[in-house]
Every structure is written in C-alpha cells, then in structure tokens.
Automatic annotation (TrEMBL):
This is FAD-dependent oxidoreductase. Residues 8-129, 259-319 form the FAD-binding domain. The lineage of its organism: Bacteria, Bacillati, Actinomycetota, Actinomycetes, Micromonosporales. One of its GO terms (molecular function) is FAD binding. Its cofactor is FAD. Pfam families: FAD_binding_3. The keyword Cell membrane does not apply.
Amino acid sequence: MRRAIRTAAIIGGGIGGLAAAIGLRRAGWRVTVFERQEAIPATGTALGIWPAALQALDTLGVGAAVRERAEPQQAGEFRRPDGSRIASIDVERLERRTGDRVFLLSRPGLLGLLHSAASDCDLRFGTPVGSVVPLRAEFDLVVAADGVFSRVREEVFGVRARYAGSTAWRGYLDNLPTGTFTEVWGAGAKFGVTPMEGGRTNWYASAGAPEGQFHPGAELGVLRGMFGTWPAPVATVLAALTEQRILRHDIYVTPHLPSYVSGNVVLLGDAAHAMTPDLGRGACEAVIDAVTLTNCLIKDQNLMAYDAKRRRTTQRLARMAGAAAWLTHVRRGVPVRDALLKASLRAGPPA
C-alpha cells in the first residue's frame, strides 16, 4: 500500500493480536483490539519462547521482561518408556548459534506482559466480532488474529481448520520444580515435562485418537492407563495429578493457504498457519508474524510483502511439525523412528 495506514482493527486479543497492537501503536497508528473473552486468562500452561521470538519481543520492548520472568531451558532429552535415552538436546549449541536459549513462560505470564505493553491501545475485551465487513470499511487495516477456528479466515478465505488426527492433554503442577525438558516417546504416544516459572512443572501428552472422543471426569484414568507404567518424570506427574487439573483438547491445523492477505485483511498466528504443537512454535510464530507485519508497513511495503516473508516460512514449519507429529504416532518400526529423531536433533532445530 502506497498510502499510509493510520487505523488498524485487530480481531483477537491473544499473543499474536496483542503483539501486533504493540508494534503498530509504536509505529504511530491508532489501534483497536476486539477480543471476545472478558479478560486475559488467569491460569494456563507453559510456552517455549525460542530465540527468534525473543528477538521479536525485544523489538516490542518486552523481551527483557520475558527473560526475567521465564525459566531458561537448562537441559533436555528424549527417552523411551523403559527409561533409556534416545537423544539429548544440545542447549549450549542453540545458545552459541543464536545468543539465546529457549525460555519457558506460562501463556498468562506472556499475555500479561503484552497486555501491559499494549495499554495505550483501545483494548475492547468482551467484544466479539460478527462479520468482518463493517471493520473493513471503517479501518485501513484489519488483522485477523482470532485463532485456529478463525471466523475471519472462514468468512474471507472460505477455509476451516481440519482435525490433525491427534488429541492432547496438558496442565501444570505447583511446587514441583524441574530444570529439564524431558519428552518420552512410546509407540503412538508421548508425554512431556518442562520447567515453568514459579517453581511449577508443565506437562503435556498426546496420542492419536478419533475426533471428539473425550472422557469427562475420567481423563486421569485414561492417562494412567496409557502412561502408568512409564518412569519418572511421567510417573511423578501422574502420581500428583488430580482430575480437576487436566485440560483436554483435540488438535486442529490450518490447511495451507494460497495467501495470508485479501484486500485490507491480513491473517497472522493460528488464523494463518495453525500447526501441531510438536515443535512448540505456535506462539513464537504469531509474535514473529506481528513484528514482520509491522516492519513491512513501516517500510511502506504493501501487505503482500508480509505474505512473501511469512507464508512459505510458516508453512514449512507447519510441515515440519506435522512430520514430528507423525513420528510421535508411529507404532511400528520404533527403532527407525528413534534413529530419525536422533538425526533431526543433530541437524539442529530452527531458532
């Protein structure tokens, strides 16, 4: 766009939406955020903040606060259900390459920092958006950051999220500190444990399952049935869990789109490229999307410059996440699967 964009409507007050609000406001725009929830959540599980996302947060003025509040990943390894090690993560290698480690911070913790930094925007929580048509007419730019089940994506692009074939459990435990990332891979299922700020332990599990096959009030029994014979730290977490502390949800992904832009509407975060959580990059890519979008507009590039910079990159990461999910769900040929995991770790993760 050659004319200056002065007003922006952001649909979604989550991580990507608030990051975009901060970036655009710092660039001098008038920003209005529409969020259907009444407030940011008070509880939630941990996110891995990778170096590239930390650098993006630095440009938004919140990177230092994230590093101060979050737990740095000190070590990591992948194990088998018998306790034997598949491979270790070279944390120092990533730090040498990027200057940063992965930091673990709860979703509410990151949202709180972003919300504070966006306080000079017009934040309209408890304000769902129906059709995007009125906003397209009123604002110069409409940023759709409304998540994996994006109404804007469906209305403007005609694309719905699809079930990825797997389900997930997650939660956290108080007063159970750990400094180590551990992920245990069995045949068709995995269980992970990570640090979390405040001396808490974040945990998650996933397995292939039919869509919507939940067990309300009985998920703890399901977890113990699947993972009950696995060693610590899985056994430690399962022994401490209560039914009320378990979150369960199916995993959905966004089909690859031909563009993230339509007129003055742009998609970012899960609305554009929801991926399986196996790389732990969803929140990171939403922040990077927001900063990239802001930079493209500051430089007076059109919105297609944002699409060119982010679509292929995020779709490649989505394919990588899908491949990792496929490896997780392998039931036969597990030794070959483990060898592939080792090889991927030697190649090193994207920063």
